[in-house]
Design goal:
four-stranded mixed sheet, Glutaredoxin, about 550 residues, Growth Hormone, Chain: A, mainly alpha, single chain
Length: about 550
């Protein structure tokens, strides 16, 4: 059966799509559980770092899982191009499920000390490596079974599996939080979403064992023409390497920036900076994810009709123009009291520049104890924007909230107990000044415009789905069959792993450094801008290409 077969068995095709999508959804579920629980993970595994640093470390560890995805792309891409698509992504789902289940059994920092975050890091590495081999295999497997005229819509189901995975993660987390209560959930209930994944693992393995090899690869194998050296053919020959680089810069830069801003940084922004209740954030994101599911298939179908290029370009361009105005509008609708306070009573940090450090520490080893660092950390944790002003050398940092002056504390040289007491004293005085100035401790439910807030969120959902829906078919059609798994997987996971995976962490760190809660958006904005330009001028239209050429 050739890849571009004119006849397909409907039942067989449904099995191909269902098994590939279900396994991918399960792997995304596993990965998303960790990202959604970043704040809780920080409290249990990085308790010694404090609130803000703990969240930063957890977000950094979330990004670290993405860092290893290109490694998985190389390992499983080579297996997929030499031995076959089916075996490669059967291994990935087993590895992913085992690592996720193990996280639910890990000891916390209180139980095992520094060993706990080390074990967690190891599990994240396994997760990231496994996921690096998953997407390429599933997308290629479905595409190589599809007729050209339906390839976009059918691979759109692979894209929508991310929505199903994230939706499942949010449902389980929300249910556990609601049933147990926040205190019990933070203490031990966070383990439940990881542990229940073992059942999903069994279903995914069973479904994938039912699959046969993809027709395009089987055709190569029968002719003895499969690649013997996938790395050399994919990256050592300019005709293929230039396609790898084009895929990375034109599509994957934007994919990583737009999708992870929409579904990961946006919830962090709402919860950490706008002080929206975690339950409300989960509910909003859960509805947005549910709405996004059919949009992936729709935009994949649309690309079958009008072409891949302009659907992709529409999605990334919409996100580009919406980043800054969209997030400002979300602040206005989610926490109007905060926006009003920032206009009425701006906050300034006056500090010796030499005492201020970039609080960017993904491994959690640095301790930021200067008066400037303590002041900025407290403000970032409170979700308050501020302006930096240079102070006199050697003078402790000061926070001006309107006419009120709050002197920070110098923590260098203090032991842990004394440092904690000093920080608590400063944070108490700062909180009192902020409350007096009208800064809300949390978003007021009665003043939130939920409908308008969700409407803005949907702009980013549409942008992300328009970019992601046709992406699998566009990437599969770009590369030759012999090295398709390897050549496709690497740029995909560099873009989503290194650009996208670090969006929440990098953007959050930029905010703490600059004092501007919107400054972190420059990170996804720049990557998206590059893709918008490159796609417009260089991306070829691939709709209808034969995958056997």
């Amino acid at each position: 059966m050739a890849n571009a077969a004119t006849e397909e068995q409907p039942t067989s095709m449904r099995t191909v799509v269902l098994a590939s999508s279900a396994g991918t959804a399960f792997e995304w579920y596993d990965f998303f559980v960790f990202g959604t629980l970043a704040s809780v993970i920080g409290k249990n595994f990085f308790a010694e770092l404090g609130d803000t640093a703990g969240v930063l470390a957890a977000l950094g560890l979330f990004g670290a899982g993405f860092f290893f995805r290109p490694l998985g792309a190389l390992i499983f891409g080579r297996i997929g191009d030499k031995a076959g698509r089916k075996g490669a992504f059967l291994i990935t789902v087993i590895l992913m499920g085992a690592a996720t289940f193990a996280i639910g059994l890990l000891p916390t920092y209180a139980m095992a000390g520094p060993l706990a975050p080390l074990l967690l890091i190891l599990m994240r590495i396994i997760q990231g490596t496994a996921l690096g081999g998953e997407y390429g295999g599933a997308a290629i497997y479905v595409a190589e079974h599809s007729t050209p005229g339906k390839r976009g819509a059918r691979t759109g189901w692979i894209q929508t599996s991310a929505a199903f995975g994230l939706f499942g993660a949010l449902v389980v987390i929300l249910a556990a939080r609601t049933i147990l209560g926040e205190e019990a959930f933070v203490a031990w209930g966070w383990r439940i979403p990881f542990l229940v994944s073992v059942g999903l693992l069994g279903v995914s393995i069973w479904m994938r064992l039912k699959l046969s090899e993809s027709p395009s690869f089987q055709k190569l194998k029968d002719a003895g023409e499969q690649s013997k050296h996938p790395f050399r053919e994919a990256f050592g020959q300019w005709k293929t390497l230039k396609l790898v680089l084009l895929a990375l810069v034109a599509v994957m830069f934007a994919q990583g920036a737009v999708w992870y801003t929409a579904f990961f940084y946006l919830p962090v922004f709402l919860e950490r900076f706008l002080k929206v209740e975690p339950k409300t954030v989960n509910e909003l994101v859960m509805v947005a994810v549910a709405v996004s599911a059919p949009l992936y298939v729709f935009f994949g179908w649309l690309s079958d009709k009008v072409g891949r290029k302009w659907v992709l370009w529409f999605g990334m361009t919409l996100a580009l123009v919406a980043f800054f105005p969209g997030f400002h509008l979300m602040a206005k609708y989610a926490n109007p009291a905060l926006s009003e306070a920032e206009q009425r009573m701006p906050v300034n940090v006056i500090a010796d520049p030499a005492s201020c450090h970039l609080q960017f520490d993904p491994v959690g080893k640095a301790v930021f104890t200067s008066s400037c660092d303590i002041a900025k950390s407290a403000l970032a944790n409170a979700g308050v924007s501020y302006v930096n002003e240079a102070g006199a050398p050697g003078v402790p940092a000061r926070v001006d909230v309107g006419s009120a002056e709050v002197i920070s504390v110098e923590g260098e040289g203090l032991d842990k107990a004394a440092l904690k007491a000093a920080k608590t004293d400063f944070e108490t005085r700062l909180k009192a000044a902020l409350v007096t100035a009208g800064y809300p401790a949390k978003a007021e439910a009665g003043r939130m415009d939920i409908a308008a807030l969700f409407g803005v969120m949907m702009i980013f959902v549409v942008a992300a789905t328009a970019l992601y829906g046709p992406q699998a078919s566009a990437l599969v059609e770009l590369f030759p069959t012999r090295v398709r798994y390897t050549a496709l997987s690497l740029p995909y996971h560099v873009g989503t792993g290194w650009v996208g995976g670090f969006v929440p962490f990098t953007a959050f760190a930029i905010v703490t450094a600059t004092g501007n809660i919107y400054a972190g958006l420059w990170y996804p904005f720049v990557f998206t801008l590059i893709s918008v330009v490159v796609t417009f001028f260089l991306w070829p239209e691939t709709r209808g290409r034969s995958l056997d050429d």
